[in-house]
What does this fold into?
Amino acid sequence: MPSIKLQGVSNFICRHIDLKIENGEFMVLLGPTGAGKTTLLNIIAGLVNYEGSVLFNGFGVDKISPHQRGVGYVFQNLAIFPHLNVSDNIAFGLRAQAKSSPEIQRRLDEMLHLVKIEHLARRYPYNLSGGERQRVALARALAPGPQVFLLDEPLSSLDYSTSRYLRTEIRRLQRALKITTIYVTHNQREAIEIGDRIAVMHDGVLEQVGTPKDIFFSPRNEQILKFIGSPNILRCEHCRKLAKGLAEIKSGELTIVVPDGGGEIKKIAILPSDIYISTNKPLGPDINRFTGTIVEIIPSCVSNNSAWVRLQMRDRILVTEQPGDKVKELNLQVGSRVHVILKMRYIKTLSVRGTFPELMVAIAG
Amino acid sequence: MISRLKLGWGSLPILIFLALWEVMARFNAFPGQIFFPPFSGVVQEFYSLLASGLLVKSFFCSLLRVLIGFFAGSFCGLLAGILMGWREHFNKALNPIISLMYPIPALGWLPLLMLWIGINELLPIAIIFICSFFPICYNTITGFKSVDRNYILAAKTLGASELRILISVIFPLALPNIFTGLRLESGMAWRVVIAAEMVAIPTGIGALMMRAESLIRIDTIIVCLMVLSVMCFSFEKFFHYIERMLTANWR
It folds into this structure.
């Protein structure tokens, strides 16, 4: 599978984009609506006009028409052909390549199996669920054996649990096929969970390209910070490994249990929306639970139905995002004492790998 | 079973209508009985026309004209529509001309064609050709234009050539629109052929009606009208059926 390189790509939306995507990499293109993400995918697929050049494996494809670029493209609205059944949809690309019919059949069976929809082969699209359509679109795009896989917000129309499940499925497929992939989304959580690297795009310009951790812990500018949800970032002064992939860190006077990905944890980050507050003491074990005092309540500028609540917790100040009606219901005011839970699963950690593992074992012991 | 029941209930108003007609004519509800024959009289006339072979002959004359004119016109209209819907420069070149000719009523061409072609078998066929060509052409263009662009882009990225996209994506998706045109025009063709026969051609159902008018044979006229009604209806139903057969499994 080739690497993809964009050199000075510009058109009516995108402005001078340079980007290199490695062989087999899963790159997430993240940005708000209207940032030019879809346009960039269309450029790579050759569906719109542009200046600059697109190279697959160092080979310029600018003169190659879309139907010969070898790109698998899953459109935002999927564009599954309504007049063809699932099998014919998936086989469309194979027939276009004039493959022999036993080969088409073999490949079709393989794809149906790969996305687990063997039982739907004869169905027509109108009679499929959102998740099933999604699978058909994936299989159809992958069937001709593309070199490059482009996905444009493929999960945005699905409910939360289906999209979460399919996200892992997409990642599984991508790993199995080792296909160079660009995945467009406007959902920062999705981006952080799925991508090898993230390219943040805004107003047709690439703002920052880096691993999810780079983006999360050191966003380059205000735009990106705002877009990824302004996480609370706490420096860790002390780190102690617990069992089962957990670690306990100290930041000032707070002791927090976090998921442990190995290495010494330097910083942790938690999004304002992942901090839960209540006026009554919540049930359950006393892990990652604190009490805090509200120092400020700011109506959110992003959505009018939520508010930013700044909390003093011991010697740290954390920002939380709360639904507007919850603020009213709990009668939250500056000075109120509240119970706080940091949702452990959503805490991100930044660690330095391989620093004094012996020492860490010693501390853990 | 259900469709049969539906047919049964659907025919009830017709039966009531025919019964009322029969009763009113028999009891002389209107003055001038000669202008209002009862339904049974019409049926009798229908059989005698069948027996004399006149009705069958006239009917086949008209049917042949309709079939030839309609299929030739639809075929050419379809081809023109495909070209214009597929290739923008054809559309740009031909659309203004077609837009100006489309609104002319098909029968408006009659005097011109009578002089150009003369009064022969070709005349009604030419009229029906014109009356079928433009609507099918228009509906085909509309059908092509209304295909979601994303399907075309998707087909492109899947490696399909322009011709393949036309044949296996655009055309099938435009079929519902094309069939709407065919369905409406199949009925229209019958209306036009009758008018042409009434005015200019001495054979066919229209001519039979005009002769009946001069002999004041109301029952013959009504028989002809009923044949027409049944033909328009069954042509439209036929195309409806074909459309359903081709598109029912995905719509």
Observations:
- The domain at 235-350 of chain A is CATH 2.40.50.100 (OB fold (Dihydrolipoamide Acetyltransferase, E2P)).
- Confidence is low (pLDDT under 50) at residues 354-365 of chain A.
- Chain A has two domains: 4-228, 235-350.
- Chain A touches chain B through 30 residues (CB under 8 Å).
